[in-house]
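Design request, tokens follow.
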């Protein structure tokens, strides 16, 4: 069981608190006001686990109306929290109480990217679905797991393929060049699971050198894939072997915000840690 963390009394923490209050109040207009007019929301909390793309206020209005009007109440427990000036990254457990009196729970990750003080891109993904299975395909009965795949032959599919190639070849300069000069990477693959913030090319170079040098081999398989010119949203399963012979299997959600062809924000979150526990 993941340990809960407190939501901070920070500007982003207060924004999230307001957001949850608007959902409880079923205040759709208030929720829309938190998003830019040209916003993009991608959700994988769908029946078939395939991404739903929600663009602009008209689509967002219909999305919220379909999600919150049959919800009686819910509780929120954060298991991870990270934030930047324009970013929020959290994993939260939602205990749901629908209007019909039934109950259930789901574990989500929410990544926000703000522009001009409003949410421009919202990656609304799932760690654990209401049926107890996980986004990386664990939890299914043997033989019932969703198929894993390769990135598609699309602009971001090719960029991701190149990204993994740079990791395997330990080409630090190549991978850092995929990021904007002022990029921010937030990662939660840390010993205490406390988020690590990596800012700009100098810190990215040090970070990538630290991660790559102990690598002998790596295999990446795609569990979920969503993309838009503004961003990439995936769940992937990774098999890792170190130069010392150590091996690990884990899964991540990797979400990129793209501007001018480069990554400006990278939410590098863990779904399943090497010890088999979840975010």
């Amino acid at each position: 069981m993941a340990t809960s963390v407190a939501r901070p009394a920070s500007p982003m923490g207060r924004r999230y608190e307001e957001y949850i209050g608007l959902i409880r109040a079923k205040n759709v207009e208030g929720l829309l006001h938190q998003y830019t007019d040209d916003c993009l929301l991608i959700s994988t909390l769908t029946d078939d686990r395939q991404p739903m793309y929600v663009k602009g206020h008209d689509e967002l209005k219909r999305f919220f109306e379909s999600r919150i009007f049959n919800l009686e109440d819910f509780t929120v427990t954060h298991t991870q929290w990270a934030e930047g000036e324009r970013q929020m990254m959290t994993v939260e457990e939602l205990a749901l109480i629908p209007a019909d009196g039934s109950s259930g729970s789901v574990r989500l990750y929410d990544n926000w990217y703000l522009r001009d003080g409003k949410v421009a891109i919202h990656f609304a993904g799932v760690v654990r679905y209401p049926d107890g299975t996980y986004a990386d395909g664990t939890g299914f009965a043997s033989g019932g797991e969703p198929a894993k795949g390769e990135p598609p032959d699309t602009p971001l599919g090719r960029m991701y393929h190149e990204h993994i190639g740079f990791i395997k070849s330990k080409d630090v300069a190549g991978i850092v060049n995929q990021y904007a000069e002022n990029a921010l990477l937030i990662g939660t693959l840390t010993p205490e699971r406390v988020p690590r913030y990596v800012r700009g090319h100098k810190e990215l170079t040090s970070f990538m050198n630290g991660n790559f040098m102990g690598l002998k081999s790596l295999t990446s398989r795609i569990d979920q894939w969503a993309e838009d010119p503004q961003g990439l949203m995936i769940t992937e399963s990774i098999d890792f072997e170190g130069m010392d012979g150590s091996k690990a299997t884990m899964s991540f959600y990797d979400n990129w915000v793209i501007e001018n062809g480069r990554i400006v924000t990278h939410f590098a979150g863990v779904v399943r840690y090497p010890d088999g526990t979840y975010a």
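Comment from the thread starter after seeing the answer: thanks! The chain has a mean pLDDT of 95.
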